[in-house]
Amino acid sequence: MNESEIYEQIRKALADAPRNQYTVEMHLQMIKYADKLKNVTSKEFCEGVGLKPSFGTEFSKMRNLTQRLKSAGLNTDLL
Questions:
Q1: If 0-12 CB within 10 Å is exposed, 13-18 middle and 19+ buried, where does residue 30 land?
Q2: CA–CA distance, 66 with 58 (Å, rounded to integer)
Q3: CA 40 to CA 7: how far, in whole Å?
Q4: How many structural domains is the chain composed of?
Q5: d(CA 72, CA 79)
Q6: At 79, is the secondary structure helix, strand, or coil?
Q7: pTM to 2 decimals?
Q8: Residue 55: inside a domain
Q9: 1, 14, 34, 73: most buried, per Cβ within 10 A?
Q10: Is residue 41 part of a domain?
Q11: Does the residue 20 lie in any domain?
């Protein structure tokens, strides 16, 4: 799956998320694809998904959190 396909999957997941679950879904998607987007800047991520630039901080946080979760046994392929 290439970068643009990942962005499309994330956009679809966010569009399908219930209104009160949008932020949760956004964080989950960031964690799910963190390894595949490890060379992407937070600015590029936000532009690719169509998010406000302020969400770049969240992307960076989730990418860092993903490493901790994987160390604890999380398999992001199952998300």
A1: buried
A2: 12
A3: 12
A4: 1
A5: 15
A6: coil
A7: 0.93
A8: yes
A9: 34
A10: yes
A11: yes
